[in-house]
Design goal:
The chain has 927 residues and is of the alpha+beta class. 55% of the residues lie in helices and 11% in strands. The strands form three sheets. An eight-stranded antiparallel beta sheet has the order 9-10-12-11-15-16-14-13, with helices on both faces. Helix 12 packs across helix 13 (304-313).
Length: 927
């Protein structure tokens, strides 16, 4: 424990004891004075906590010192309580040997690592079995500690029990390893430590190390197996506090050291490693203290709602294009990376010193190789024999990783350390070296998991040195709820996705991409485009345009010819185009498909863009890609491919397509009478026939026929599409002004999320609206109870018995703040009269929240606009809703004043103060 400065300002134990003696010394303790006893301890604890907090906030104490200050405060509380309990409450004046117990701190408290909201783990150590008097004393101490509001975990055990349990349980073994004497029978604690060393530590060193590393690996898998998530767990995440503690435990168990820096004298770590360890500990401790103070609870995750305030508390400021919060999180990721480096170094030394004969990471067949293409092999890991080898030939850095990839070998941590120590050799000349670039391109485009090698190169710093633009996005967070990973980790995961597609590992989930990738000619360009698609993020400006400029400069250096370089630049420039069109536009609009094809220009580029788009989205995060998005991309791809290939869709006119669709429906309804079929066909206009697939239209026909046989104003058909993760909900009811808005409101109240909608009015005056709906987990909306409730709410809303605006307002008022509330999403309304020949396209952007779609569609209805289709997308906290609309006369909106009014009213609608309150919007707009 660090030296505690001005201890009595934190807690004056002598003064506290004097007050307790003054209370109980004359007449002894009685239960009547318990409230006064508790008051004294509470006062001492409160004042001590405040003093520690003040020192931290005044920057007089760093993270390490603050942790130790807290441990000191609790130490003094427990020591005083022990003395008071054994002298006055359950006096043991002449204790027998069985009554001479002691109190020890274990776990994190044993290491004196106490954050403001940490638990306290205590061991009441006994010589033998527990006596009644000791039981009473322990119980009194625990109850008072709990009454102080402390979170106390405890065990009461003899030395024999501790030894027995430690042999059987790794968690108990680790907690006891951290044991620290607090008060009581010191000889008893010394005996425990001696026996624990002899009976447990000395006979299980290697087993303990292996078990802790396995425990660490399992924890990493549970937490996502990457340190580069945008909301990392400070304690359990990869590169976090638990990993540092694992290093400490291994060092203490094997070498008996109390401080990590003591390992330097055993040649286990270097002085630089020790300094890096202390720096990482201090940073993570400081962040944890600030986090606990900010949330006033034991929160360990750096969630979006705390990151910005933490950055300001810890003194980070905006600099250039980087905001304070981005600089703070970058510091976190680089610290987590340091922890990974230290772990590799320590494990390597342990393997050397213990001559471990099995390899944890690679195939057994590699164990017996002694030399591979000039590199040594030690336990399945490549080594650099000569410490000056890289100085003599810097190209060996790239050859090392290339051989590791080709032969599916790991690289020895000592070799990685040599690479890291010689990164200065990666200068302009080496970057321009054709052989270095050839080796890099071979690794990038290899079928043998390029993501593994690139991640390793990134961890050691070689990737950023070789491609300086990549260094700029290393540990670059993306401060939004849509992205899960930092830019560099997202990029490497995208390359991994591309590799998986090419190997056919996702053929069932990505049928179009899995076929397209084997029809691609520009394979090298595709891999480079995936690597560079986000290379210019964080620079300000359009990262797609800036990234295309990087591609034009970097392509020739990597050995790409002019055509490949131009293809890479085009792909980077347009890497968001396909998803924007697929998710935000009506894919049944032939004019839209034509405009998209004008951008793409060739089937080759279309295939490249499809695969790049799929890789990009799938690498954003584990829950971002779903079947619905995949289906939209496939539909756009097939529509565009048909046009670019000069197929039937491109040649046929509208009427030919309508006729083809009607004939297809006739074939699908062969068990219907001809009169029934023709009656339904006559009710649909050309727009209806071009907007739906034949299987959907067959379900529509069945719904309309069923409605004639049933009572009730609202008829619903639900079809669950598990492959695309959506439920298709078709609603047949009398057409009604604002019907879409009513359904959207009812859907919001039923916890359904509309992702797509197509509106049709049949010639009989009935509305036939079809919605693609997911629940809040982006899964199909398949709860029969919710569907029944939805129908009831639509029915009541149409009858005027339910007002969605009022109901949504009530729900909003009773809902806790969401993490989305942290983010500011500037409201934006875009109106496009060029993309469609028949409709005005209105795009609305704003911060997502309950009822967003309802409010927007209600405003569109108030403005006298008819919604033909809607395409709804949510990107984290950002809602992007697109509507194809006409005016009351069924025409596009061409009046500039009307367009200005639409934009003004919609902006007012999505302003937070006006949620669900149309009367306020009318007042402000003067309508």
């Amino acid at each position: 424990m660090a030296k505690i400065l001005e201890q009595r300002k934190i807690i004056d134990r002598k003064a506290l004891w004097a007050e307790l003696e003054n209370m109980a010394g004359w007449s002894g303790y009685s239960s009547k004075m318990q409230n006064d006893v508790l008051k004294l301890f509470k006062g001492a604890l409160k004042e001590g906590r405040q003093e520690i907090k003040d020192r931290f906030e005044r920057k007089e104490a760093n993270g390490i010192v603050t942790f130790h200050n807290y441990a000191f405060l609790i130490d003094q509380i427990i020591r005083t309580l022990y003395d008071f309990t054994t002298k006055y409450v359950y006096a043991i004046h002449t204790p027998t040997k069985a009554e001479q117990f002691c109190v020890a701190a274990v776990g994190g408290y044993g290491r004196a690592e106490m954050a403001p909201q940490s638990d306290i783990d205590l061991l009441f150590l006994l010589p033998y079995k527990q006596t009644p008097k000791v039981e009473q004393a322990v119980e009194y101490m625990l109850y008072l500690l709990w009454d102080l509001g402390l979170k106390v975990g405890h065990s009461t055990r003899s030395i024999d029990e501790c030894i027995k349990l430690a042999k059987d349980d790794l968690t108990i073994q680790t907690a006891l390893l951290d044991g620290r004497y607090l008060w009581g029978n010191k000889d008893l604690f010394d005996e425990f430590q001696q026996r624990f060393k002899e009976k447990v530590i000395d006979v299980s060193g290697r087993q303990f190390v292996d078990a802790k590393l396995e425990e660490r690996d399992e924890r990493h898998q549970r937490m996502g197996d990457t340190r580069y998530v945008v909301e990392p767990n400070l304690k359990e995440g990869k590169g976090g506090l638990r990993d540092l503690q694992t290093l400490y435990w291994i060092g203490k168990y094997i070498y008996g050291v109390e401080r990590w820096r003591e390992l330097v004298k055993y040649d286990v770590i270097t002085a630089d490693d020790a300094a890096a360890f202390k720096k990482a500990v201090n940073f993570l401790f400081s962040v944890r203290c600030a986090l606990h103070y900010l949330t006033n609870r034991a929160q360990e995750s750096l969630t979006f709602d705390v990151q910005n305030q933490l950055a300001l508390t810890l003194g980070y400021k905006d600099r250039g294009n980087l905001r304070a919060v981005e600089r703070f999180m970058k510091h976190y990721y680089l610290t987590a990376k340091t922890v990974g480096d230290l772990t590799r170094n320590l494990c390597a030394v342990l393997d050397e010193q213990h001559k471990k004969q099995q390899q944890r990471f690679t195939m057994l067949t590699n164990l017996f190789k002694r030399n591979v293409e000039g590199f040594g092999v030690d336990s399945g890991r490549l080594t650099l024999g000569d410490k000056d080898a890289l100085i003599q030939n810097p190209l060996l850095m790239f050859e090392l990783f290339s051989v590791a990839q080709e032969h599916d070998l790991d690289i020895h941590p000592f070799a990685l350390k040599q690479v890291r120590a010689n990164l200065r050799l990666v200068d302009h000349d080496l970057r321009e070296d054709p052989e270095a670039n050839r080796l890099f391109m071979d690794m990038l485009t290899s079928l043998k998991k390029p993501q593994r090698i690139l991640r390793m190169m990134g961890e050691v710093g070689l990737l950023g040195k070789f491609i300086p633009d990549f260094a700029r996005v290393t540990a670059q967070m993306q401060y939004d709820m849509y992205h899960t990973y930092t830019v560099d980790e997202h990029t490497i995961k995208a390359i991994g996705e591309l590799n998986s597609i090419e190997l056919g590992e996702n053929a069932e989930e990505l049928p179009a991409s899995s076929v397209a990738i084997h029809e691609i000619i520009s394979r090298r360009a595709l891999y480079v485009a995936v690597m560079l698609h986000d290379i210019a993020k964080g620079r300000g400006g359009d990262h797609s345009e800036l990234g295309a400029e990087v591609a034009l400069e970097l392509g020739p250096r990597l050995g790409l010819d002019d055509e490949e370089t131009e293809t890479v630049a085009w792909l980077v420039r347009h890497h968001l185009t396909m998803s924007n069109v697929a998710f935000k536009r009506d894919l049944e609009d032939p004019n839209l498909i034509k405009q998209f094809c004008d951008i793409v220009q060739s089937p080759e580029r279309l295939r490249l863009l499809l695969v790049l788009t799929a890789c990009d989205i799938r690498a954003v995060g584990p829950d971002v890609w779903n079947g619905w998005k995949g289906n939209l991309l496939r539909v756009l791809y097939m529509r565009a491919l048909e046009v670019l290939s000069g197929g039937e869709l491109a040649a046929g006119g509208v009427q030919a397509r309508v006729t083809a669709k009607q004939n297809a429906l006739r074939d699908a309804l062969q068990d219907w009478s001809e009169d029934e079929i023709e009656e339904f066909i006559e009710q649909g206009n050309p727009g209806y026939w071009l907007s739906f697939e034949t299987d959907v239209q067959a379900r529509h026909a069945a719904l309309v026929r069923r409605a004639t046989q049933e009572d009730g104003p609202v008829h619903i058909n639900v079809e669950h599409d598990t492959f695309n993760n959506v439920s298709e909900i078709s609603i047949y009811t009398a057409d009604h002004p604002g019907l879409f808005s009513i359904i959207a409101g009812a859907m919001a109240l039923t916890n359904g999320s509309i992702v797509d909608a197509k509106i049709a009015t049949l010639s009989n005056g009935m509305a036939l609206d079809t919605f693609s709906v997911q629940d809040h987990s982006a899964e199909a909306f398949d709860s029969e109870t919710k569907i029944k409730r939805l129908a009831e709410r639509i029915d009541k809303a149409l009858k005027g018995e339910l007002y969605p605006a009022s109901e949504l307002e009530k729900v909003t008022q009773n809902t806790l703040k969401s993490r989305r509330d942290v983010f500011t999403v500037p409201p934006r309304v875009l109106i496009d009269n060029k993309v469609s020949n028949a409709f005005t396209v209105v795009e609305v952007n704003g911060r997502d929240r309950l009822g967003f779609l309802y409010d927007v569609t209600r405003t569109l209805t108030d403005l006298g606009l008819q919604i033909n289709s809607a395409h709804i997308a949510t990107f984290g906290e950002r809602a992007v809703d697109v509507f194809y609309v006409k005016d009351v006369f069924g025409l596009k909106v061409n009046s500039e004043s009307k367009l200005a009014t639409i934009k003004t009213r919609l902006l007012q609608t999505i302003t937070e103060a006006n949620f669900h309150k149309p009367e306020k919007r009318r007042e402000r707009s003067g309508v």
